[in-house]
Fold these 2 entries.
Entry 1:
Amino acid sequence: MQAAATREIRNLKDLVAFIRSELKPKGKILTPFNVITAPILAIGLGLIVYRFIFGLGTVVHEVPGFPWGIWIGFNIMSGVAFAGGAYVLTFVVYILRSEKYHPIIRPTVLNGFLAYLFYAGVIVVDCGRWWNITNPILGNKFGVNAVLFLIAWHFLLYMLTELVEFSPAIAEWLGLKKVRRILNSMTIGAVIFGITLSTLHQSGLGALIMMGKPNIHPLWWTEYIPVLFFVSSIFAGLSMVIFEGSISLRVFGRQMTEEYRREYPDIVVGLAKTCAAVMFVYLFLKALVLIHGRHWDLLNTPMGYWYLTEVVGLVLIPCLMFAKGVRSRNLTIIRVAALLTMAGIIINRCNYVFIAYKWYVPLSERYIPTLAETWIAFTVVLAHIWTFRWIVNRMPVYREVPEWAKEEEEEKIIRKEVAQWKASRM
Amino acid sequence: MDRRTFLKTLGAGIVGLSLTPSGVMAKMADGRVEFMGVLVDTTRCIGCRSCELACAEANGLPLPDIEDDSVFEHERRTTVTQWTVVNRYETEKGEVFVKKQCMHCCQPACVAACPVKAMQKRPYGPVTWDLNCIGCKTCIFSCVYDIPHLEIEKPAPKIQKCIFCWERLKEGKLPACVEACPQEALIFGTRRELLEEARTRIYEHPDRYVHHIYGEREIGGTCWLYLSSVPFDQIGFRTDLESTALPEHTTGFLYAVPFILVLWPAILLGMYNTTKREEE
Ligand code: SF4
Ligand code: SF4
C-alpha cells in the first residue's frame, strides 16, 4: 500500500495502470460481511433496475394520500441529517481551528459526500418521472419559489464543495503533487460555502414539509420546523461520526497511527459533549414549541405517547447518557447514546413524512413499506458502506498522508514562520 | 346563449365575459383578470353522476358505469382515472350527494411546492399539470384535499387530477361536468359573483342552508365553492382548515434564504480571520 501511495505518476499510461491495479479487491474477499451483504446488494440493484424499466408500482404499493415513504423519510431526510457531521466538523476544524478533531475530518467529509451521492440518488429512484430529474437545474421552467427547487440546487452544489474538501486525498492517492496544492488552497472557500449551503438545506428539508400543515399532527407541526431540522442535524451528524468511528476503529484499525488511537477517546468524549449540549438546546426549543402550541391535551392520546417516545426516549435519554458518558469517560455509554440518537432522528423524520402525517387516517389505509421498497432502502445504505470501504482502503483517509504531502505541509508552516519572522524584524 | 347555458353561468354583466374565441373568461373593466369558479349546491345534487361520465368523456378517461349504484356504498376518492367522483353521505337531513374534484385553490399548495412549475395556476383559476414534471410528489404531499395522484403503475407516470377543463374553457366551452349537470347543481362564473350568488341563496333560504360557503376562506380560498344543508363535516369535508393560504407557511423560510446566503459566509470569514490572528 505504502508503495502505491509513494509511486510517482508521470503520464496518463501510469495513471491508467495505477487505477487498474487499485480496482482489484484488497484484502480477504470471503469475510462474513461480504458474504451476507453481497447478495443483498445484488438483488437490490436488480430491483432498482426493474423499477426503472417497469415503473414505481412494481416495488411500492399505491397508498392513496401517502406519496412519500421510507425512501424519503429514512434514506433522504435521515441520511442527509446524518451527513451533517461534515459541515459541523469542518466548521470546528477550519473555522474555529480546533486541531483536536483534525484526524477525523477526512472520514467524516468522505462519509458526508457519499451520503449525499447515494441518498440524492434515492431521489432519482423515488421520482416517478426521473428522466426529467435535471429539470430543476437545466430546465426552462424554474419553480424558484419552491423549497424543493432550492434543495435540488443546494444538494448539487454541496456535493461539489464536499468533493473539493475531500479531493486532496484523491490527489495524494494518485500522487498528483501540483493538483493537490491547488485543491488544498481551495479548501477554506469550500468549507465556508459548504457550511452556508448546509445550514440552508438542512433547514430546507424541514421547510419542504411545512406546507403540509393541516396534514401533520399538531404536536409535530410548528413554524420552527426548519430550525428544529437544522439543530437536530448537528447532533445527528455527530452521533453518526461517533458511530462510524467506532466501527472503523475495528475494521480499519490497522491503518490508523498510534497517535490517532491514543487521541481517539478524547475526540469521542469531545463530540459527546457537543452532542449533549446541542440536544439540550433542541429539547429547550421543543419545549418552547410545545408550550407555545398549547397542545397539552394531545399528549394524553396515542399520538401523544408516540411523541413522548420520540422526544423523551430518543432525545432526552440519549442526551443524559452523553452527559454521563462524558463525565465518566465511558465510551460504551456514549456509543449506545449515539445509536439511540440516530434511531430518534430516523423516527422524527419518518414522523413528518408518513407517521404523524395524516395521523387521522386509520391504520388499514395507511402507508406501510413493502419488502422490495425496504430492500432497496438498505441496498443504498450498503452501497454507501461498500464505497466508503473501497476508498478508505485506497486513499489516505485514516492512514497517514504520504511523505511528500507531509513535507509540503511542513514547508507551508516554515514559509509562514519565515514570513512572520521577517515581519517581526521590520 | 340559450336558457340552459345561461342558467349554468353567471356573470352576463361582466365586461368581456364571452363564450366565444377568447374563452369563457372574465375580464373586469380595468383589465384585471378574475378567477373563474364553480358553485356546487349540494342541496340540488341528485347523485346521477352525469358529471362523472362527462368528465371521463371530455378527458379521455375510462367511462364509469353510472347506472351502478353500488359505488355509493363506500366513500370514494378521486383516482388517476377518475378526476371527479360523487359520494353519498347519510346526514341528519337524510342522503346528500357531494361531487368531489380538485378545488382549484386560489393560492394552491401544489403549485407552490412544484420545483419545475409543472403545476401551474392559470390566470383564470384552473390548476393544471405539465409534462416537464419530475414526479417528486411534493404536490401530492402538500394538498389537503388528496387530489393529485401519480400513476405509479406506469413506467412513464403522469400526475392526474381535474384541470378545470382548461382546454375547453379556452375554446369558449363550459367545463364538461357543469354542462352535463341536469339539476343546475353546478354553476360556472367568476368567483366573486359565485360568492354573491351563494350568499343570496343563503339569505333567501336561511333554513335550507348552513350559513357557510365552503371554499370562501379555507386555506386562502378555493375557486370551487360549496353550499350545503348540513354541517360540512357530515359530507366529507375537512372543517379544521384555517384561512391562511398554505404557501404562506414557507415564505418566512424563503425570505431568509438570501440573507443567510450573504450573511453566513461573511460571518464565517470573519471568524476564520479572527482565529487566524489569534493563532499567530
Ligand atoms: S385542491 Fe389540491 S390539487 Fe387542487 S389546487 Fe388545491 S392543492 Fe392543488
Ligand atoms: S410531482 Fe410533478 S407536478 Fe408535482 S410537485 Fe413534483 S414536479 Fe411538480
Note: The two ends of chain A are 47 Å apart (CA to CA).
Entry 2:
Amino acid sequence: MIPLLLYVAIFVAAFFIVRLGARKMTERHDFTSLKTVTFGDESAVRPDRWASVISIVTIFLLWGAFTGSKWVPVHAPGPFIGDTQFTYTAEAPDGARDDATVFIRVFEVGADVTEPEIDPGDGFAKNDVITVGAWRSKLLLFDQNDEITRKDGARIVAIDGQPVEPGGEVITDAGRVAVTSKGSLNYEPPKGMQMEPIWLPPPEAVVARVAEIASEGYQNFTLWEHLGWSLYRVVLGFILGAAVGIPLGYAMGLSDWFRGWFDPIVEFMRPVPPLALIPLVIIWAGIGESGKIILLFLAALWIMTIAARAGVSGVNITKVHAAYSLGASRWQILRHVIIPNSLPEIFTGARVAMGVCWGTVVAAELVAAEKGAGMMIMVASRFQLTDIVIMGIILIGVIGYGIDILFRIAERWLVPWKGRS
Amino acid sequence: MTGLSIENISMRFDLPNGGHVQALKDVSLHLNPGELLSVLGPSGCGKTTLLNIVAGFLAPTEGRIVLNGHAVKGPDAERGMVFQQGALFEWMSVRDNVSFGPRMAGRREADYGKEVDHLLDVVGLRDFKEKAIYELSGGMQQRVALARCLANDPDVILMDEPLGALDALTREKMQGLVLKLWKETGKTIVLITHSVEEALLLGERLLVMAPRPGRIHTEYRLPFADMGVGQDLREVKKHPDFGQKREEILGMIWDMEEEIMGRAEEAGA
Ligand SMILES: Nc1ncnc2c1ncn2[C@@H]1O[C@H](COP(=O)(O)OP(=O)(O)OP(=O)(O)O)[C@@H](O)[C@H]1O
Ligand SMILES: [Mg+2]
C-alpha cells in the first residue's frame, strides 16, 4: 500500500517538476510541436522521454528502498534486529499472579546467534529467553521453566500490562505477541516495511546472481545456454510455423477450395491458446525438444496463416486490376503484387507470433524441460531462490522486447511504404 | 473490323435482398482506332460498370465487347487502365512501375529501357524515376500511372476519372498532357469524367449517359479536342461554341438529377 502511494506521489511530483522546470530547456521545435489541438489527436501524443526515464528510475528506487539495497541511499524502515523484551503476567489456579520477562534476540537469518545469559527471576513464573530470525516468528512455551505450568492450570492474562485472552494478541514495543488457543505464546518481531529477500531480493543480489550464473551456470547449464536454448526453440518453431502458415494463408486468400477446407480448422484453432496444447503435446511427443518445437510451430502457424490471409484480402483490388491490364499472369500477380502488398500484414503477424512463441516456450519450460529460461526459474522457485526467478523474469522480458525491436527495425527496412499509400 | 465495338451491353446486378439493379441497358457504340471518347453522366448511371466491362473485369449479362475483330474475354494488355488513384505499386520505384508491363511480358531492360526513359521524360518525371511512389504528389502519381499504361503500348486506354482527385491547376496541366499523348500516340481512349468542361475538352466524341437503367442519352462530335492539341486549353474554353455546349450539357444532366431526386421523393413519400 505504502509503496503504491509513494509511486503515485513520485508520478505526480515528477510530472510537475518536469513540466514546469526541465521542459523549458528541451522544448521541441518541429511540426507536431506547433499543433494546438493535441488532446484527442493521437498522433500528437508522443512519449515524454523524461517520463520514461523517471519511470524506470522510480521502479529501481522503490525496489532498492524496500529491500534495503546498498545501491539506494534512502531506505524504508527495515526489520528490527537486536535485543528486546516483553513481560507476561501468568495467573495460577488459585488466583495468584506473577510477572516474568521474555528476553529476545532478533538476528539476521543466516547469521550466527547465541542466547543471551539471563537471570531466571523470582515468583512462580520465570524469565524466558528466545532467539528469532528477522521476519520470522517463534512459538514460546513460556511455562517450561515455570513452577506452575499450564498443565497445573496456569494461564497468561496480560502482556506488558495489557489484558489478553487465548486466541488474542497484543502489539508491544517488542513486536506482536499472540496467545494461541492452547495458551502458549507466539512472538513476531517488528517487520518494518522492507521485503524479505526470499520474497524480493535487493537489486544487487540479482545482479550478483547474473554474474554467478553467467559464469558458473545453474542446473548444469550456463545462463546463456538456458536463454540460448529458449531462443533457439522459439526461432525454429516460428520459422517452421511461418514456412507452413504463410503459404497456407496465401492459398486461403486465393482459392475457394483452400478457404473452405481450412477455414473451420483455422477458426477453431485460433482461439485455443497454445498453452492448452502443452499437455497433449507432452503426451504425444514427450518433454524433449521435438515436443517443444511442435508446440511453438502450432503457436506460430495459425497466427501466420491468418496474417497472410489478411494480407491477401487487404490488397486493393485496383492494384490487381491494374496488373492484369498490364498483362501480368497469375503467378506474376502473386509474386509482384500480392506478396509485396501483404508484407506489412505479415510483419505485424510475425511480431505477434514471436511474442506468443516466446511466452509459450517459457510456459512450456515451466512445465517440463531440462534447460531453458522457464526451467531455470521454475527450479529456482522450488528452492526459494527468488533472485534467480527475478533475474530470469527480467531477462525474459528484455529478450522479448529485443525481439520486437528487431522486427520493427526489419519492418522499417523492408516495408518502408507501410501506412503511406 | 478494327476498332472497339460495344455491342448491346446490358448489366444487371442481383442484390442479396432479392431485388436487382439494372446498371446498363442495351448500350451500343463503335469507336474507330485513334478516337477519343469522353463519357459523362450523373452519379450511378453505370459509367464505371461500362468501363469495367470493356476492361474485362466484369462479364456483362448480355451483349459483348469486340476489339479489332475478337471478343473480349477478360483483362488483357491490349486494353490499358488508368485508375483514379491507388493503383500504383508502392513497393516499386517510379521507373519500376512504368516498366512493369514490359517486364511482365519478359522483355529485357536493353529492349524497353529507352522507351521507358522517354515516357518518363514526356510526363516530366525524369528526375524522379528512382523515387518511391509515396514520395510523389497526387498529380505526379497520375503521371506515373499514365506513363505505366503507355509503356505497355495498349490498343485502347481506359480511364476512370483519372484526374478526379487533382486540384484545378494540376488538372488543367494534366488535360493538356492527355491531349498531347493522344495526338502523339494515336491511341483509342475512353475517358470517364464528372467534369463537363473536361469532357468537352478531352472528347473528340462525347457520350452523355442517363441513369436507371444506364443507357446512352446523347452523343456529340466535338471540335475542341483537336483545337486543344494546337493551342492553350484556356483559349479553347473561351470559344463561344464551348460555352454554349457546356450550358446545354449541364442543363441536360441537371434535368436528369432532378428527375432522380423527384423519383426518390416519390418513393420516399
Ligand atoms: N457490385 C455491384 N453490386 C450491386 N450494384 C452495383 C454494383 N456495382 C455497381 N452497382 C450499381 O450499378 C449502378 C452503376 O454504378 P457505377 O459505379 O457504374 O456508376 P457510375 O456512373 O460510375 O457512378 P459514379 O459517377 O458515382 O462513379 C449503381 O446504381 C450502383 O449502385
Ligand atoms: Mg464511377
Note: Residues 2-65 of chain A form one domain.
